[in-house]
Amino acid sequence: MTLVDLQNFAKLHPGLAALTAGAFGACVGSFLNVCIHRLPKGESIVTPGSHCTCGQPIPFWYNIPLFGWLFLRGRAHCCGARISVRYPLVELTTALLFVAAWTFLPPAKAAVACVYLPLLVLLAGCDLDDMMVPDAPNFALVGTGIILAMLAPSIHGETMHSIEAVNRFRALIDALLGAAVGTALVWWIRTIGSVMAGREAMGEADIILCAGVGAYSGWQGAVFCLFGGSVIGVITALPGLIQAKIKGEEYAGVVPFVPSMAIAGAIWFFRGPELVTLWRDWTAS
Ligand SMILES: [Zn+2]
User: Fold this and answer.
1) pTM, entire model
2) Is there a contact between 225 and 243 (Cβ–Cβ < 8 Å)?
3) How far does the chain reach from its first CA to its final CA, in angstroms?
């Protein structure tokens, strides 16, 4: 069975396909929760098995994605400790992203999305949870982006040449260029921003993330990741900024760059070229 067969099957049975993609995504999300909890602390993501903060092991039926949390109503069975709403949220987000990928993207791109989107969720989750983005998944984003470009050149739109090797080589160049532009762009913004603000404007994690988005969706994706992500970040921080302004206080929060850039990276992966066309039409009229 090839990817195309899989998507043809999905077209025949859309409900069943969405349910399968969603269930698969929820399971991946469940694993991401473990990674988000353990990676920033430098713990192994394999051993020990799932356990509560009180030390009790968690039986697998309470670990069933989404339903486990709903069934327990957000409280641990063993000690009644509150279980963060982050757990079902990460599972739901990943599930919906998988459904969207298999519904809206061509087969090869949907398969690539199953690697790309979970990594973005993982990085955003770590940043929101711990304000700390581990390097391993961030570099994995860049590395897998470059490798998958060669395996699936169509994600960079490289399908024109009759010789497959040429397409793969061109996609590799697109990915490398995307990573390079992403790195350079954030480095410059960071340097200029740090000088102007008098403090660290963006972190190293932002540079690697933008490079990763570039590897998956070319230099245009990297540009959108930075500027689109900044817009999203400022919008999400705006209520806090306004509140601080009204009270006459200094704004204490931070603009959540990593999650915002991850959202921008995902938007571009789904609808990047259409956004360019929209922008051209809008500026031309
Ligand atoms: Zn417990």
Assistant:
1) 0.91
2) no
3) 47
